[in-house]
Amino acid sequence: MRMVVDSNFLERQELTEYLAASTENSIVLTDYVAMEAYKADTLTSICRRMTIPCQYPAQVMVLRSTRDACGLALRADDFAEQIIDPEQSAGFGRFCQALALAESGNQKIRQRVLEHGREAREHLERMLCESDGMMSAITEMAAGFSSQELKAIRRPDAAYSDALVSKLARNIIALSLNLMNSHPDVKKEAPSFQGATDRFIFRIAICGLVLATRWIAVGGVQGVRPEKIRNDQVDINFAAFATYYDGLFTADKKLTELYRESKAWLNIFGEANPA
After folding, report:
1. pTM of the model as a whole
2. Which residues pair with 4 in a beta bridge?
């Protein structure tokens, strides 16, 4: 088993039980796990968050960056292997040793950890500045639905019509193409249908659509704090990466549902006629 781990799950007893159950059980750490662990600006925070993973360093897989993921054009199974950073994964035990040295007073390593914290906070602050774009996209998407379609989206127990499913699918495809066209590391040739659904950016678009419909269901994003939108962007990242592995460990019910719904959309696209 290879499970992506959300930041809020790193200190849970269930994680220890999973890793202790079998040496074949691994956890997958994304760059956002690191950023959220570092952002508190304290060595205590990062050491506490990494206590359980550091007890099982051989069972930790560290991924390359989200930007690297966006640039890869591979089949899903190959992506899941290629996005793993072999150097960072093999060196995770040394990272844990360095944390222990920093905690015991090694000033050089302490300063390095704090510098990583500063970089993490700067990145997350930039995401706050970009939250307006996501809010505008959600508002624009909501305007494209009829009153009957909005009524279905706002009812949690409503079964979507085939026409609404098709409309949402077209929104996913349009969003993914826009993201691919605007990303500096994505080659601009149009991927095949199957090639597109394997792409990380396509799966980001699926997760983004699921979150957008949730916001639409509760009346939109007017007045929502930028921090909330940023947290949603981080959730999108966790859920998208988890679609390539055996699942997602999170204590967040909303993120769990986001992951499950995104997997359901992948199944829809997998069964769809490319036309």
Report:
1. 0.89
2. 28, 248
